[in-house]
Write a structure and sequence with these properties.
Layout lengths: L3 E4 L9 E2 L6 E3 L4 E6 L14 H4 L8 E7 L7 E11 L3 E6 L22 E8 L4 E5 L6 E5 L3 E6 L8 E2 L7 E3 L10 E5 L7 E7 L16 E10 L8 E3 L3 E8 L2 H20 L3 H11 L4 E3 L5 E8 L12 H15 L1
Parallel strand pairs: 1-4, 3-5
Antiparallel strand pairs: 2-12, 4-16, 5-15, 6-14, 6-16, 7-8, 8-9, 9-10, 11-13, 11-15, 14-17, 17-18, 18-20, 19-20
Helix pairs in contact: 2-3
Length: 337
């Protein structure tokens, strides 16, 4: 029988780094985890009057639930995390602009003399039954119901070599990649750097445009269910994603073109390995069949995703079909909960 573990952290149990913390749980491969994750503001921004600069304290932003030790995971292995369900935990969510954060404003590394953007909060009404999050203009009377497409902006494992990374930074361990591709039904693959992998998860969004251009999605607390597994002896250089229809590689760096190159390089070499192609043949195939969704262009590193439809890969399977196995486990769980 599949183990099911439920965990809702207290506020003082939330983590703000990947690495540097002891595990809050130890679970076996194949365990289903029912997790509560807080929003990137720790639930402190609740109305349009709650400015993050006044109600939040840096660096206590972007909290994650975890880390979780998965037994048997060792450096050189890959941790597979299948996202079974991602469900908003409240009937409201928020988004903001910040004076020095986002893709269309000056930042501490892009120094400009023009005035910073205003700090403004938007509050969204979330209706899970209707499948909507309602946008309302702050300086006008326009509103529109946007379809829910819940995803997690932040997921990953501990980096190696005793390193601890702030949760806002995406890199080879995962982190704040902010890709809308990380939704329910997707399996994420992370290369293991430390015993137990030390997986953590947070930063739920009711939905988010590609690039997260203003610096925030529709930030929400989530009730999220995942199932974890360990793929022994299989390395994963950068986080990868798999859906029923597509394979995806991520890359996180600055400038954006380097993030793009990392993701495309991994997709080309992964394709060559899976299909048995010469590297230049794989390069040509991905050049013509691939897509490049943007994760974020606002974080300390930017994130790009390389994506290819499985039908162009001749039925080649990744990691010996672990996605399909975990998907079946998820379906059994959903049918009996």
């Amino acid at each position: 029988m599949t183990d099911v573990v439920k965990y809702r952290p207290e506020p003082d149990e939330l983590a703000y780094t990947f690495g540097g913390r002891e595990a809050v749980l130890r679970v076996r491969p194949g365990t289903i985890l029912e997790l509560y994750t807080e929003d990137c503001f720790g639930g402190r921004v609740r109305s349009v009057d709650d400015l993050p600069s006044q109600v939040c304290e840096f660096p206590y932003l972007n909290p994650v639930t975890g880390p979780i030790h998965v037994e048997g995971a060792e450096p050189g292995d890959t941790l597979a995390v299948h996202f079974v369900a991602i469900e908003p935990a409240r009937d409201w969510a928020v988004s903001t602009t910040f004076p020095h954060f986002g893709a269309l404003t000056g930042t501490h590394t892009t120094a400009t003399l023009h005035p910073p953007l205003d700090e403004v909060v938007w509050r969204y009404d979330v209706d899970v039954a209707a499948g909507t999050a309602t946008y309302r203009a702050r300086r006008g009377d326009y509103s529109v119901a946007l379809p829910l497409d819940p995803m997690h902006g932040t997921a990953g494992v501990a980096p190696g070599a005793f390193e601890a990374r702030m949760t806002i930074t995406p890199d080879a361990h995962g982190g704040n990649m902010d890709t809308p591709e990380l939704r329910a039904g997707v399996t994420a693959y992370f290369g293991v750097n430390v015993p137990g992998a030390l997986f953590a998860l947070g930063d739920g969004h009711c939905r988010q445009g590609h690039g997260e251009v203003c610096g925030t999605g529709i930030e929400a607390a989530m009730n999220t269910t995942v199932v974890v597994d360990v793929i022994k002896g299989a390395g994963t250089p950068w986080p990868r994603l798999e859906s029923d229809d597509a394979l995806m590689s991520t890359g996180s760096a600055r400038p954006l073109e380097d993030a793009y190159r990392i993701s495309q390089h991994d997709m080309v070499t992964w394709t060559a390995d899976l299909v048995g192609l010469d590297q230049l043949d794989a390069y040509q195939l991905i050049s013509q069949a691939g897509e490049a969704p943007v994760g974020n262009v606002c974080d300390t590193n930017y994130t790009m995703v390389a994506k290819v439809d499985k039908r162009f890969l001749g039925g080649a399977g990744a990691y010996d079909g672990v996605h399909a196995r975990l998907r079946d486990t998820a379906r059994d769980y959903l049918n009996h909960r």
